[in-house]
Amino acid sequence: MKLAKNKNQHTHRAMNQILNKQICASLSKDLRKKYSRRSIRIMTDDTVKVMRGEYKGLTGKVTKISTETSGVAIEGNKKEKLKGEKIDVYIHSTNMIITSLNTDDKWRLKILEKMPKSKIKSMKENAKKKSEVKSADKKKNEVKPADKKKNEVKPADKKKNEVKPADKKKNEVKSADKKKNDNKKSEKK
Hints:
- This protein has a seven-stranded mixed beta sheet.
- A hairpin with a 5-residue loop joins strand 5 (71-80) and strand 6.
- It starts with a helix and ends with a helix.
- The model has no long low-confidence stretch (mean pLDDT 80).
- It is of the alpha+beta class.
- The protein has a domain at 1-118: SH3 type barrels.
- The chain has seven helices and seven strands.
- Helices cover 51% and strands 22% of the residues.
């Protein structure tokens, strides 16, 4: 498939389920800390602040949502037509931040309280790392007693390093024989 065709399927020709999910806005810093998520779908009666565009700085409640254009109409923001009619101005949902949420919907509260997948994934990774560290520490502790045993000199090893009295006598005899041979050689000369 061509890139343009993919883009059209994801945005313009998408099903209502997908279009609904696309009408999201990022949360304010306070709400991010509270709910531990970055963005959520906009609903009516949410308080919103516009961050970009012609209406930057405008705050108000959401009155209408357009799934076709991913636009949101804010209370009190109207445009006058040539004939004198006043119509709602739709602002794209990505240009705003949600400052307070409408918590009347029980389903929405459940979604907000549920932990995001990324957080669950990071918690699992942290748990794996901790278990790996603990197992490595246990292995080190097990290896240390074995190292101590290696470093300790066994009584048999001590005997090997020590010279036996019989070996001493042999060494003395050999050294005496060498001296005699050296004396004989020197006498012949």
